[in-house]
Amino acid sequence: MTGLAEIKAAARKAAFARRKAAFDARPPGTAGRLSEVLAGYRGVPLSGYMPIRTEIDPLPAMAEAAAHGPVGVPVIQGAGQPLQFSRWTPDGPLKDGPFGAKVPEVDDYFDPEIVIVPLVAFDARGGRLGYGGGFYDRTLERLRARRATLAIGFAFDAQEADELPLEPTDQPLDMVVTESRVLSFRT
User: Fold this and answer.
1) Distances (CA, A) of 76 to 42, 109, 136
2) pLDDT band for position 133 (cuts 50, 70, 90)
3) For 137, what's the count of Cα atoms within 13 Å in the CB-facing half-sphere?
4) Domain limits, the chain
5) pTM to 2 decimals?
6) For residue 72, which of 53, 55, 97 has the smallest C-alpha distance?
């Protein structure tokens, strides 16, 4: 019988292929819908991410949000540890961080109330398949233990999967924003 790790690896491989095809064909302005969603949360501390490889780019929406309140990006602290979020500005100096993502040159950590989450795949129930390191799951668990934290997945439509191999430790998304729609899972 195939174990969960192998099932997740196969699901990631298929999702990466779908994401790359969507990335290669992406229309301009794919962050526009994310900007529209974030406009309803002006001034609320949030974190985005610095896109790597074929991730959908949230930077235009982050830049717009930064005019109204604090915006951060994740900084990996080490294997098995939650992420920290350092204040980011559109023109602020950056340095190389782990996994090829840029991070602010000077650490200025804060806890966001909204986390824009990159992902490999998502499902229609708010499930998320990430890269496998558990960084966002540990981080969302830590943040949600302190206060309500909105997790917004940002992805291409093509990254939706009918079903994902999820575990009890996988933190659900409250919303997914794609280039064409907004899915809400909050009850």
Assistant:
1) 26, 12, 10
2) confident
3) 16
4) 4-184
5) 0.91
6) 97
Handedness of CA 73, 78, 83, 84 (dihedral sign): negative
Chain segment 45-66, per-residue pLDDT in tens = 999 999 988 999 999 999 999 9
Question: Is the dihedral angle over the CA atoms 10, 152, 37, 86 positive or is it negative?
Answer: negative
DSSP state of 74: E
Asked whether 75 and 88 are in contact (CB, 8 A), the reply is: no
Please tell me the CATH superfamily of domain 4-184, with its number: NagB/RpiA/CoA transferase-like (3.40.50.10420)
Query: What's the chain's length in residues?
Result: 187
Neighbours of 91 (CB within 10 A): 6
- Can you read off the two tokens belonging to residue 141? 């668990």
Q: In whole angstroms, give the CA distance from residue 19 to residue 11.
A: 12
Structural contact between residues 109 and 86, judged by C-beta atoms closer than 8 angstroms? yes
